[in-house]
Every structure is written in C-alpha cells, then in structure tokens.
Fold:
Amino acid sequence: MTPDELADLHALCFTTPRPWKAAEFTDLLDMRGVFLITQGRGMIMGRVIADEVELLTLAVHPDERRSGMGRALVDAFVTRARDMGATTAFLEVAAPNTAAIALYEATGFETTGTRPGYYRTPDGQTQNARIMCRDLGRR
Structure:
C-alpha cells in the first residue's frame, strides 16, 4: 500500500485517535525500526527499539472486520517483531474501543495501565488510553 492508500484506510477506520495523513505514514516508514505489514484491505505498523516493539496502528477496512484479518495481522506483527529482536510488545488503545481491546486480549495482550485524557475526540472531548503489553515469549 502506498502512503496515500494507508491514509485513506486509516481515515475509514479512525476518528479517535485522528486519522493519520499520507505524509505522516511516509515519515514513519522512513524511521529506523519501523515496519509495515499489509494484507488485503488491512495493515499493521510497528516500531522496534532495542528489545521492545510498539504497535503503532492497526486498521482493517470496515467491510473486512470480523473476518480474522485483524488477528492475522497481529500474529504477523508478533512474528516480525520477534525476528527483529523484540521480546516485549506494547500499545495504546482508546478505552472505548472495545472491539480492538477484545482483539488485543485474544492475541495475548494485557492491560497494564491507563493514560488519562490521552486521546482527543473530534468534538474536543478526551478519552483515556489503555496501555496494553505482551511478552513475546508467550503464544
């Protein structure tokens, strides 16, 4: 997927946090340790620093949700991160995003904390973020 296609997909999937622009995808993809995995109309992006990987974003086209694509992308993310030397994964997810939280829990992530008011909604309100982690040694 091109940065423009990534931005279009992200815009279909997100309002909070706000969707990323093509230039932001371009800049991220130029950073050391950043990787992108695409599958059909879905993508996942991560960044490995030392022995940690951050799941930066995951987007699955609304028409493809509940098809197993999200789980397949998370599984591919874990494999790639391990191959790059990561032993721990973490992410932040908007607390009201119950579908994403369920996916992350089903793939081995556990909530380890909260960031109060971390995300800003389009109407100016804030939402907490759940911090989730996973030991990449466990399956």
Summary: The helical segments are 3-13, 22-29, 69-83, 98-106. The longest strand covers residues 110-120. The radius of gyration is 14 Å.
